[in-house]
Structures are given as structure tokens and as C-alpha cells.
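User: Predict the complex with guanosine-5'-monophosphate.
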Amino acid sequence: MAYDDNNIFAKILRGEIPCNKVYEDDHVLAFHDIQPQTKVHVLVIPKGAYVSFADFSEQASEAEITGFFRAAGKIAKDLGLNGDGYRILANTGAHGHQEVPHFHLHLFGGQPLGRMIKPPRV
Ligand code: 5GP
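Assistant: Here is the predicted structure with guanosine-5'-monophosphate placed in the model:
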């Protein structure tokens, strides 16, 4: 799947649409989800143009991958989530119900999150 420069996160990265920023560095931007599902719901995105986790894990440089995951851990820590814990999730592709085609981690926390989501019965 080719990267779509007009996806909403590309527009946020270009500053065309505002976001409630939590963190930024050379490789990463993190901001609050516009429709939070939990008390803390932050999206962590790479600045590079990667469609999905599959794309990022195959195509991103070592520096981007390391920078991304180090930043994600730091963001969770700085949000005060390490003590009680949190959940990270990367919806990927059609079966993963990914809506925005720019790789992102969801970071959920600030409350008990229950057990893992069960997929619908087949
Ligand atoms: P996905 O289903 O692709 O994993 O999740 C996309 C997420 O992006 C959703 O949780 C949705 O609420 C969030 N989102 C969509 N548009 C915007 C936006 O313009 N700003 C912010 N901050 N979040 C958005």
C-alpha cells in the first residue's frame, strides 16, 4: 500500500491540523487522541512516512526504530504510567481495523484496562 500524503496524521505532522502535543523529537511526535477511549489515550507516531507497523518494521532505519520505541517508553514514563502500567496497541491493516494509514501506537492508561480485547467470534 502506497503512503497517502493526505492522511490526517501527515497533516498533523505538517502543522496543517492542530494537535494536543505530548512529546516531539527528531523521529517522533506524540499527541492526545481526539476521541480518548481511556483516561490517558496518547498516539505515538513516527515522523517518517510509514503506512503501518508492517511497513515501519520492514522499511524504517535502525535509528528510526530505536528512536521510536525509546520515545514511546519515555512518553509512558513521563505520563506517570509506569507504576500502575498501561497498554500499547498498533492496529494494522484491515483485520486490525486501522483507520489512519500512518503507523501509530495507541498508549492507553490512567485506569484499569481489563483483559485483552477478544476478537469477534468467527
Ligand atoms: P486507528 O483506528 O487507525 O488505530 O486509530 C486512529 C485514531 O486516531 C483513533 O483513535 C482516532 O480517534 C484518532 N484520530 C483521528 N483523527 C484524529 C485527529 O484529527 N486528531 C487526533 N488527535 N486524533 C485523531
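The pocket of guanosine-5'-monophosphate is lined by residues 8, 17, 19, 31, 33-35, 43, 91, 97-100 (CB under 6 Å).
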